[in-house]
Amino acid sequence: MKLNHVLSVDQFDKALIEELFYHANWISKAKGHSISHLRGKLLANLFYEASTRTSSSFFAAMSRLGGRVLPINDVTFSSVSKGEILEDTIRTLACYTDIIVLRHPEKGAAARAAAVSPVPIVNAGDGVGEHPTQALLDLFTILAEQGRIDGLSVTMMGDLKHGRTVHSLSRLLRLYDVTVNYVSPPELRMPPDLVRPADREVVELDEVLAGTDVLYVTRVQKERFESTGDYHYALTEDHMARAKPTMSVMHPLPRVNEIPLSLDADPRAAYFRQMQNGLFVRMALLMYLLG
Amino acid sequence: MKLNHVLSVDQFDKALIEELFYHANWISKAKGHSISHLRGKLLANLFYEASTRTSSSFFAAMSRLGGRVLPINDVTFSSVSKGEILEDTIRTLACYTDIIVLRHPEKGAAARAAAVSPVPIVNAGDGVGEHPTQALLDLFTILAEQGRIDGLSVTMMGDLKHGRTVHSLSRLLRLYDVTVNYVSPPELRMPPDLVRPADREVVELDEVLAGTDVLYVTRVQKERFESTGDYHYALTEDHMARAKPTMSVMHPLPRVNEIPLSLDADPRAAYFRQMQNGLFVRMALLMYLLG
Amino acid sequence: MKLNHVLSVDQFDKALIEELFYHANWISKAKGHSISHLRGKLLANLFYEASTRTSSSFFAAMSRLGGRVLPINDVTFSSVSKGEILEDTIRTLACYTDIIVLRHPEKGAAARAAAVSPVPIVNAGDGVGEHPTQALLDLFTILAEQGRIDGLSVTMMGDLKHGRTVHSLSRLLRLYDVTVNYVSPPELRMPPDLVRPADREVVELDEVLAGTDVLYVTRVQKERFESTGDYHYALTEDHMARAKPTMSVMHPLPRVNEIPLSLDADPRAAYFRQMQNGLFVRMALLMYLLG
């Protein structure tokens, strides 16, 4: 099986993930060495929503493979304001470039793009839909930090209702034999269709903290924080004192108040290594799609 | 004769066009192969007006030749907001780069830039002035689609009064032995100085459709559409059924309602090939100016 | 001594400046020849304030060394609007890139960035703080134009109170045996802590013009011009007629009305050569930091 586009985590099985992570791992070891597998190739970073972090990660990934990047970050994307439909924009960019990374506010936009595109489409987030490369880098980080995936206890905490990131990761984890815990206020619970019978849903971190191998903390949207009153889903030094000495703390970043800066020096704080893994996984993915 | 700047279609004669198209054709055949004639060269994409399509085309053209692109797309172009004149901006960028592609809202801006610039200036549209590279890629597409230019019947339809694109193409076509038809509502006719005695001006496509080899449809500006009431200068499947089986349909894109999506599968729909030709012609032009 | 970050002119002594200028001079001679010392390296151009001129100069410097540039010029820098602190943004970009050029509206921002960054930080202006690379290119231009620094009479004119540029240059000149004159209206005088006893402060250019070897004119901020009433700190042809035939006129650009266009043809007008020197000095600095 060979993927033409990366639209959803559902496209990935264990064999494909293993192949991808093999290359991402190789790239991480080669850090500092020049790789130019994609010399002469051009990637379009087509962002209808600003997302400096994600667009920068793809920009760096393509650049570090010797390729070039056409950045289209303008909020006032001119052709769009002239009323052009997404399909025409994609077909036009496909005349100029070899691959298109798309961030779009509407769910299903990436699939619509793929339906007309002669070049690979990578979904970099389509509204409340998916963000598959984020889930892949999260999974790669779990493996890199813990040395395995099967047998782990993974706890996700925060606003689980709106978090595209935890939705995609949750679906990807179904491929493995893991225990999953969800910690959130009742009004911000995981969507029911993503919760399996074996999963545990609680409102307090302390109920599952002791057994947790990977703690995935998500960003608090201020608006929602205010509506839920006393929001206490932030990690504290007290939590860390009671957690496993081998626990990994992950966060998709940017963080606001969910993780205090004082925890950054804790070796269990994996979120900046997670950022760097994003680069390696995206490099592996670009090589796979264009290689 | 050697061009230093590309400001107007009037700078091009048949010999120069032939040379340019020879290289554009060679590039189109080499597609996929790495060309790095402009390695080490830097192009400034200086856009005072947003035009993602044109800036992307130049970005891709330079990148595919191994060169680099400095994109300056900000609407809030800082030095300008500090009151700097265009001439100083050009002289500054000429200290950093090897060629400047300029889009500016004022007619004559490209000529003003060229007057002070030690590096080549490429006019990528100056207000109601010119957009010479668009006209060149249009002409190249006519040749590529029809196998010749002399002897053809070319029909331009839509808002011919405001369309910079059709104005430039019309002037370039004067070099050849072609029949030209203009189809528009009376209030959106071609400017009189661009119409030659042999040209035909009509208000209905059906008057000239049967004999047309190349149908060039232009975008409808919504504001003008409303002012002209019942605007019916859109192409339909019915038109296509009555047109020549070898007719080429062109459009500078983006389209809004002038060409329905259902026509895209018709082999006569040449507008996406036209986009790709834009890349080839601009690559040839950059090689010519910097080679 | 080896610099890890470039934050302030105070980090530079004469030996380091000499080494830097040796390389900048070598680069200026090699102009046109391809240099690819930084192939495979990626620079982040992180601009919280728009400054096309400075960001373009760093973009060109990195590109001309064979490196790549990730441009982050968005005013609506997304992660920031999500409340991320500067330190986290820096640590994230350091996961993707090899060096970060930072322009930030707050004094001390570059030092804060350097405190957490594993990759070199180059201060490209931090509010009313410093802009060290501007001062270095100014000093390089003085040397290039006059053939020496010691023994010269340098006059700075204009708004000396708010000009970050003249502040940094003034501090750098203390390393040399130069006579310094400051010309400004009383309310826009140089900050007292930057004035040495030997320096001369006057309100009229004519008081020091005759002996001046280098005249550094600064930009007039319109708002401040109005508040000071009859502002006459612009250079005229009459001034030039009375100045030394070997005097160099410098300006950080953009200019507004401080230097009339009619002076551009005067061989003493050094401001566009100053621009180009900025490219060479920044290339030398990037090579030094990443080489």
Automatic annotation (TrEMBL), chains A, B, C:
Catalytically driven reaction(s): carbamoyl phosphate + L-aspartate = N-carbamoyl-L-aspartate + phosphate + H(+)
Positions of the Aspartate/ornithine carbamoyltransferase carbamoyl-P binding domain: 5-142
TM ranges: none
EC numbers: 2.1.3.2
Pfam families found in the cross-reference section: OTCace (PF00185), OTCace_N (PF02729)
Alphabetical list of InterPro entries matching this protein: Asp/Orn_carbamoyltranf_P-bd, Asp/Orn_carbamoylTrfase, Asp/Orn_carbamoylTrfase_sf, Asp_carbamoyltransf, Asp_carbamoyltransf_Asp/Orn-bd
Keywords assigned: Pyrimidine biosynthesis, Transferase
Record's keyword annotation contains Signal: no
Biological pathway: Pyrimidine metabolism; UMP biosynthesis via de novo pathway; (S)-dihydroorotate from bicarbonate: step 2/3
Domain Aspartate/ornithine carbamoyltransferase Asp/Orn-binding positions: 150-289
GO molecular function, one term: aspartate carbamoyltransferase activity
Keyword Transferase: yes
Family: Belongs to the aspartate/ornithine carbamoyltransferase superfamily. ATCase family.
Role description: Catalyzes the condensation of carbamoyl phosphate and aspartate to form carbamoyl aspartate and inorganic phosphate, the committed step in the de novo pyrimidine nucleotide biosynthesis pathway.
Entries under PANTHER family matching the protein: ASPARTATE CARBAMOYLTRANSFERASE (PTHR45753:SF6), ORNITHINE CARBAMOYLTRANSFERASE, MITOCHONDRIAL (PTHR45753)
Name this polypeptide is given: Aspartate carbamoyltransferase
The organism of origin for this protein: Skermanella cutis
